[in-house]
Amino acid sequence: MDTVIAENLKRIREKHSLTQEALAEALGVPELAVYKWEAGRLPVDYKMLVIIADFYDVPVDTLLVDTAEGARKRTANNKVSFDCTICGGKLVYNYQGGNCKCANCGNKWSIGELYPKYARVMATINEANRILNSKTELAAADEAKLLYRQASSECSKFNDAISPEIVKICTEGQANAEKLGIYCRGKHFFDNRAFKSALNELEKVPGFRDADEMIKRCKKQK
For labelling, which of 60, 68, 74, 131 has a CA lying 20 to 30 Å from the CA of 203? Predict the structure, then answer.
């Protein structure tokens, strides 16, 4: 069996945090078959490769091509590429989502995976996004703002085509963290029935979360 396919089968299973037993159950095959596929001791027919690719929602080429070698070549000089090394298609970058996708074959990579120097930056941004989207406290707003600032500072050290785009995301994140802080102050006043003070704050962030609804209710209390 092609060792590239065997390595790809193991790599993508581990990427999805699946055991061989869990994958075998999902595919309706014996666990021993999965073991032998990944050990290169049992060939996988093309029909099964298509089933596996559909299960992972990836192009079948992902299982056939030496993507690990492609990644090593891409990151060897750490230069930004806009061409997919698997099929030559154009890479479309989603900086907000922290990933890129080939417009031709559909293969996807996280920016941190494709360019290791950005791994810590993207992890910091992801944590800031999580805080911003899940918490409603002034301290959380300040923490998110600090994380975006740290990511922006580190990212600005890199001189390539990606850096300005990620700095832009950090700038937007800091602005949203500022909005969260204003919203939190307004909500605190609102919850304590200090409607005039709540209105002064909430009218600075119209459309943010449920600010508009609270603004309406504040105006009714005047």
Answer: 131
